[in-house]
Amino acid sequence: MKISDGQQDGEPVIVSKDFTSDWVLGLSRAGALFYAETDRRHRSYRTEIDLETGKAIGDPKPVGGAVLEGVLSPVWSPDGKSTAFVRMRPSPGVSTLVIRDEKGEDRELFSSMEFLRRSALRWDKEGQPLLVWGRGREKTGIFRIDQHSGESSLLLEGDYFGMGDWSSDGRYVYYRGTPDQCGILRRDTRSGEEETLHVAESSVRPLRLSRKGDLLFFSEKENADDPGQRRMLILSVENGETQRLGKLDQDLYLGFTSSQVVWAPDGKRIYLAVRRRSGSKGRRFEIAFTDIAEGDLGRTGLTSSDSITHLAIHPDGRQLAWTVSTRVDTPWVMEDFLNDD
Prior knowledge:
CATH class: Mainly Beta
Number of domains: 1
Shape: globular
Strand content: over 45%
Largest sheet: 5 strands, antiparallel
Radius of gyration: 22 Å
CATH superfamily: TolB, C-terminal domain
């Protein structure tokens, strides 16, 4: 759109229909466009955990074998013998599901759905199909994936379910209410019925179901007028009763997705991926934990300068896995972007 003497001169004109970047840095007087493309690089790790103290033992080891980049959302099968994870490819729509058996051999499956950065794998309680949030055939929602063929089927459509959690058999989905009606809702995927389990004065986040499926972890503001401090709670999905755990300090930030929380198999401890807002070293990410009986927040000793997500724990409770996501911004210039010709 041309500007003359500070006023619009003529109608806007489409310069390019193929330009997709949403981060424009600026234009030169010669008509060159400067912009940036943002990408995420994923690596996943695992380490042993001391059952008594909750602290990490030894140095973390990479998940994925020789291929380090692009490994996302590792999760153990219910019997602990197999591991599933997503291998993210550079091009969208061609990411693969990898099943690694107890011998360390991989089966790589091409699914008909697209795995997204927030895609969190969940094994079915019987260890058969995998449940995951993703996109397939122009529909976004929760999918079942056959671990033998890689074929996917839509269980429940809805973009907002990616911020929630679901039972291991896929019957119930738990998700947040709207900004006008804050709380926790549950939908029965068989009947389609929806019910409110908890009403809150402010938004709740994140939601994570226990291994048994009877308790749901979440956090909400300690004071509706104070956005900085949040309290941690667990909700009984049977009777709606809540139990208060500890507080999150104001310098700790806990995100929105269920993959940033994982319950210990015995239901006595919860691990959290948090971000420290301040400090002499800038933003730091770490894995903390809270014991249900005490409620105070402890530190595992696992830290990173990059975002930590996709927490998973071995059925024996002695191994913890997670994904580190690094943001990479690449600047570009497009010459003659505003060429009058």
